[in-house]
Design goal:
The complex is a heterodimer of chains A (196) and B (251).
Chain A lengths: L1 H29 L11 H132 L6 H12 L5
Helix pairs in contact in A: 2-3
Chain B lengths: L1 H9 L27 H19 L10 H21 L7 H18 L11 H23 L17 H40 L6 H38 L4
Helix pairs in contact in B: 2-4, 3-4, 3-7, 4-7, 5-6, 5-7, 6-7
The chains are: A mainly alpha (196), B mainly alpha (251).
């Protein structure tokens, strides 16, 4: 800026020098000297200058400057608004990300819970099935044992019957009389220990 | 007068000052104060140019500005910043006034550079009125805002007491010289530049020096474009400085 002003000053100096020489021509052609110093035109110039300046001031102050000022502040407002909106969107994006993360974590937790619940249920069913199977097995075992005992019992009775009959037949064959009670006694005594 | 004689001999005619003559726009009569003259024409050309740039150029009121709107905004921004930086925030009240001055001078200077144009800012009567209006406005603002404290501007408290009266005299003289230098700086630059271009153009009639003269005219013209802006800028910035002195007179 300073250098520009200095330049302007030297321009003035240069001009003044050349002015001195040019003034000489002017004087010879108009005889009144510099047109700028012709006082008879001052009234005209000043009158029209004042008129023009009043009009210009009105145009600049009442129309141009309010309009440009409004445009500039609108632009400033739009820019601030846009920046704020961007900030808001950024915030929203962050919130959305947080919400997404939370949803993901929740879903994981839920999935874990469901898996655990399913596992527990299956375990329960399994336990129930095992218990049921155990009960069945023991019931069958008990039944089988009972039947074995029955078979064994009936076998014992049958053997005794056969032994008595055979003994009675033998006694009869040898010509003796059959004393049923003695035969039974003898057979029972003989079978003691054999069929226990 | 030697050049004049030579001019007669070679058929050269130098009329560098003719361009500054105030003439009636219609007819050939005397120039009364109300006569529409070439001054009137160019003054209203300036008003129309300002209207075209600042009003028509911004009619879109666009958030993304058109070319003319960005030039208008640039001018607004430049002068607004100048007033705010130099005269301070309280000087912004006078921004429309400073802006009017700047637009007037810048368009007067640039329109004056058109061939055959009349440069209103090359007249002391015009620049004198502008400078005097600035001087009177600023002085009035100074007294209205600060009362008698405005006189502190002339009483340099940072200087030793003994030399303060001397400084006060110098300050008062420099204060009253302001409108003179303010107006003559602008008019002088305009007169000189335009006259020099005319003189070089006159030399172009001689075949031997014509190329040099034409190059010189082109060079001067480019230079004058720079001067046209700088002088408008200088006038405006000085107005802001004076305004600052009126608003904050203490040194």
């Amino acid at each position: 800026m300073i250098s520009l002003l200095q330049e302007a000053v030297t321009v003035t100096a240069d001009h003044t020098e050349s002015l001195a020489s040019s003034v000489a021509y002017g004087e010879t052609e108009t005889a009144t000297g510099l047109p700028q110093l012709d006082l008879s035109t001052f009234g005209n110039q000043i009158f029209w200058l004042v008129v023009a300046m009043v009009v210009l001031y009105w145009v600049v102050a009442k129309i141009a400057l309010p309009r440009i000022g409004a445009v500039l502040s609108d632009r400033q407002g739009a820019m601030t608004g846009d920046l704020m909106a961007a900030e808001e969107f950024k915030l929203k994006a962050k919130e959305a990300e947080a919400a997404y993360d939370k949803a993901l974590a929740d879903a994981r937790a839920e999935a874990g819970k469901i898996v655990a619940a399913n596992r527990a249920e299956i375990q329960k069913e399994l336990d129930a099935a095992i218990a049921h199977a155990d009960a069945e097995i023991s019931a069958r075992t008990a039944e089988s044992e009972k039947r074995i005992r029955e078979i064994r019992g009936s076998a014992d009775t049958d053997a005794r019957e056969v032994a008595r009959d055979v003994t009675a037949e033998l006694v009869r064959s040898f010509g003796g009389t059959v004393d049923q009670a003695a035969v039974d006694q003898a057979v029972d005594n003989r079978m003691k220990g054999a069929l226990q | 007068m030697a050049i004049e004689a030579q001019g007669e001999a070679t058929g050269l005619s130098f009329h560098p000052m003719e361009q500054f003559i105030v003439r009636p726009l219609f007819g050939d009569g005397p120039v009364h104060w109300y006569t529409p003259s070439n001054v009137t024409l160019w003054l209203f050309a300036i008003v129309l140019a300002t209207l075209a740039l600042l009003v028509l150029g911004t009619r879109g009121r666009a958030i993304v500005p058109s070319r003319s709107q960005s030039i208008a905004e640039m001018a607004y921004g430049m002068v607004h910043k100048m007033v705010a930086d130099i005269a301070g925030k309280d000087g912004l009240k006078y921004f429309p006034y400073v802006m009017t001055l700047f637009m007037f001078i810048v368009f007067a200077n640039f329109l004056g550079l058109l061939p055959m144009a009349f440069t209103v800012t090359s007249h002391i009567a015009v620049t004198g009125v502008l400078a005097l209006s600035v001087f009177l406005t600023v002085t009035a603002i100074g007294f209205i805002k600060n009362g008698a404290h405005f006189l502190d501007l002339f009483w340099v408290r940072s200087a030793p007491l003994a030399i303060r009266p001397v400084l006060a005299v110098i300050e008062v003289i420099s204060y009253f010289v302001r409108p003179v230098s303010h107006s003559i700086r602008l008019a002088g630059n305009m007169i000189a530049g335009h006259a020099v271009i005319k003189v070089f153009a006159g030399f172009a009639a001689i075949a031997a020096v014509a190329p040099v003269a034409i190059v010189a005219v082109v060079g001067m013209y480019a230079f004058e474009i720079l001067v046209a802006f700088i002088q408008a800028y200088v006038f405006t910035i000085l107005t802001c400085v004076y305004l600052k002195d009126a608003l904050h007179p203490s040194h």
